[in-house]
Amino acid sequence: MAHHGEHHYNLDQRFDFTASIKKSILTVLVIGAIILGIGIVLAMTGGHHEEGASAGEHAFHWYERLYASLWVNNVFFTGIAIIGVFFFAIQFAAQAGWSAPILRVMLSLGNWLPIAGVLMIATFFVANHDLFHWTHAYLFDQNDPQYDKIIDGKGAFFYWPMEKGTFPLFYIARMVLFFGFWVFFFNKFKQISAQEDQLGGSSYWYKMRSWSAYFLVFFAVSSSVSAWDWVMSIDTHWFSTLFGWYVFASWFVSGLSAITLIVLFLKGKGYLEMVNENHVHDLGKFVFGFSIFWTYLWFSQFLLIYYANIPEETVYFIERLSSDVYGPFIFVNLGLNFFLPFFVLMTRDSKRHGVFLKLVCTILLVGHWIDFTLMVQPGTLGHNGGLGLLEVGMFLVYGSLVAYVVLGALAKKNLIAKNHPMLEESYNHHI
Amino acid sequence: MERDTHFILGVYDDEDVLLHAVEKVRGSGVKIHEVYSPYPVHGLEHVLGYKRSKLPIAAFLFGMLGTSLALTMQFYMMKFDWPMIIGGKDYAAFPDFIPVSFEMTVLLAAFGMVGVFLITSNLKPWAQPRIFDLRSTDDKHILAIDLANNSSLELEKIKKILTDSGATEVNKKSFD
User: Fold this and answer.
1) Is the CB of residue B88 less than 8 Å away from at least one CB of chain A?
2) How far is the C-alpha of A161 from the C-alpha of A224, rounded, in Å?
3) pTM of the entire structure?
4) In this structure, are B114 and B101 located in the same domain?
5) Which domain holds residue B41?
6) A303 contacts in chain B (CB < 8 Å)
């Protein structure tokens, strides 16, 4: 209603990261670690009767599955973390007022970024050949029988200015640069937000808008390139020109789901009382809309490759659709990430009530994690992949660690940017 | 007094005054015929107690109709009427049909919604709209009360309620 009454909200509220919440998260962590442990043991003992080695492929080792699982979760949770920062920046670039009380929730996801960066680089150096085919030096040696002209042609993208097949300096430099700048912008946002808390005034809002614009330009490029580097380069021969967007869309839906879930969680605990069903409705619309956006990109990529029928492109989908391991998951992927949110979140009521949103957002997090598994596994594990205890355990371990880091950081500062100039507008938000 | 086609009109200058007035008028038991405003007033449907529009349901049904028509049309054409091999695929290759089905869904949902809206709003070309006050297309909000619906209330009392609620004028309007 358009009645502009007086609002008396506690703007100094802080999230209390209580022992019981910590205990629940650590319980999930321990359960995940146990499942992961059982999964590793099963993979170690059960992987020997595979016939892959005899078919001329390199012998499959159980730890490749562990590396692939680490990589899936690295990419997936890095995405959620950076989308928190991205969505925060979007609010300022778009001069949005409705989201003012939940800005800190978005930004808090970025706290995972430094850890994600270290994990990503460490996993790359440990897993190396086992994840990325292009790291083999013989591919670039013209005298070697396994010389690969196509990969040699792409070699400079990984190795420049070093000699191809030695140290992938350009690749590593990009990884360091992206994480470096993402963390830099994240800290900048935090810093400006903290100053605004102390001094107030709209100058900080303008400052934040400028920095958001710089970040968005950088993110536009870095999100696409990181998708090529971290995901598309696994299938080194294959390429898709919209892959960057596709990965971004998957990240965006996951990030929005994470933001929505944290907001609903905090509301359930009695915080953020100014956030009402109108704000929740807006978050729901974002989740709904970008689920469709993801599907649009998924289908655009699929249809063009299917229709044009060029062997070097279709191989990507043949590897997945005609595989016993991955075939069914293509449909699980579409079901969880499109049909379910599309039909459940279609009505206005389901977007305004937490129950439906909690359900859909949780499923979407799992769904897009499966999506990333489908991007990474076929190119690294071939027919030895799948979703087993190892993968589920690793997901729970990563998920609980991210939740612990994010909620821990959220508890350190005020939950609401109390001097944000658009808080009043947000209180009266009505749709 | 003949009350069948007689209306009492409250004229308001300000949308905030109007919103409170609607609440007050309804609160005193007067049934409001309709409110006419030059632009959409946020929250007006809410204070008028209007139920949510069923238009989205019509959109959904028309959308589904579009999907089914598009799929039927394509299957019939490609499988039976004029089979063609395109890109080495089957005659009835489902992925090929999705773009057209999507477009037909959007088209029929949009057309269906517009059609249903026109019909339910009585916006047919030969409709004779009742103009209560021409200024409702310019700078005044007009609150119309149908006397036939408020036969239990005194005329003077209704007028007083309107004046008390902040109406700048209270007029009477009759239609033949």
Assistant:
1) yes
2) 22
3) 0.92
4) yes
5) 5-52+144-175
6) 95-96, 98-99
